[in-house]
Amino acid sequence: MPYALAIHGGAGTILKSAMTPEKEAAYHAALARALEAGEAVLREGGAALDAVTAAVCALEDEPLFNAGRGAVFTSEGKQEMDACIMDGRDRAAGAVAGIFGPRNPIRAARAVMERTPHVCLIGPMALQVAQEAGLPFEAEAYFFTQSRWDALQDTLAMRARGEESDDPARRHGTVGAVACDRDGNLAAATSTGGMTAKLPGRVGDTPIPGAGCFADNATCAVSGTGHGEVFIRYTAGAEIAARMRHAGETLDQAARYVVMEDLGRNDGSGGVIAVDRDGTLTLPFNCEGMYRASVREGAAPETAIYR
User: Fold this and answer.
1) What separation in angstroms does the CA of 130 have from each of 57, 101, 127?
2) Partners of 179 in the beta sheet?
């Protein structure tokens, strides 16, 4: 069967008025590079799991996105990263939360899945597993981006004045990928730096299978980007699969209901990318924009930001 792949680089208030042609071109180029990294795996007959790993690594390497190199800062000026990967063949999953050091947190999550009997690790042991897997680590300077530091200072200054930002982009910025390979196997991967000025130790939906990351060959693979607390409470990824399995909905029907109704009506701004076992893709979001790209075998790749 033909392969299919979709990626996202976060969602929120992405105003066209604040987007210069140069910046918009940079986002499209970065999305295209990440999509190609994942599609290259599928084009050679590779597995969905390897494709989503490659795509998310490419997104983590881009300072434009809130994951890996472009991760946001906590209220104490540190960076804490979460990631999750899930294999649709058997629902195997691996996740890390609150880590700093590995160049690609998604590879650390995969190491947890493949090298331990657990699903999620935090703290020193998560880093030890990554080190034992031979994964590259980077120093603080590698992960520092001025725009993220400035966003932290702006947010802290607003809090000091008793104000809260109405920009949901400060609450969520995530990268992710979903894929269906030529064997019909599904996989999903999600990675994030979390929320700007979040409390140290805060963990969002990204490393929680069934919330911000989900894959099951029987239904679909999902990666979300949004207000993590709401995605957790409404088990966004698993709910899409449940609506397909128990209500007989199509992927698009299920994903749109969860994004527009369950999340959208409950302060859950954001969106998802999803693929089913037939290679059907859907990428709904309930905010002004979502950095996204997709491709199906035999078709031209597409990148988009706005509706």
Assistant:
1) 15, 9, 5
2) 5, 187
How many whole angstroms separate alpha carbon 99 and alpha carbon 80? Answer: 5
Structure tokens at 215: 């894959």
Which is nearest to 104 in space by CA: 74, 136, 126? 136
Distance in angstroms (rounded) separating the CA atoms of residues 131 and 135: 6
- In the annotation, is 250 catalytic? no
Burial level of 21, CB count in 10 A (0-12/13-18/19+)? exposed
Say if CB 176 and CB 273 are below 8 A apart: yes
φ/ψ (deg, to 5) at 8: -140, 160
Structure tokens at 233: 């409470």
Catalytic residue among 74, 174, 282, 303: 174
- What local confidence, expressed as pLDDT, does residue 17 receive? 79
Query: Phi, psi (5° rounding) for residue 262?
Result: -60, -45
As a whole number of angstroms, the distance between CA 222 and CA 202 comes to 22
The Cα 225–Cα 173 span in angstroms is 6
Integer Cα distance of 303 and 236 in angstroms? 24
**pTM summary value:** 0.96
Amino acid, res. 199? L
Q: Which pLDDT score is estimated for 15?
A: 77
Look up tokens 């527009």; give the residue.
Answer: 260
User: What digits encode the pLDDT tens for the residues 90-140?
Assistant: 999 999 999 999 999 999 999 999 999 999 999 999 999 999 999 999 999
Residues 236, 256 contacting (CB under 8 angstroms):
no
CA 7 to chain centre: 8
pLDDT digits (tens, 9 = 90+) for 264-286: 999 999 999 999 999 999 999 99
Q: Does residue 9 contact residue 64 with C-beta atoms inside 8 Å?
A: yes
Say how far apart CA 215 and CA 120 lie, in whole Å.
16
Q: For the residues 238-260, what does the mean pLDDT come to?
A: 98
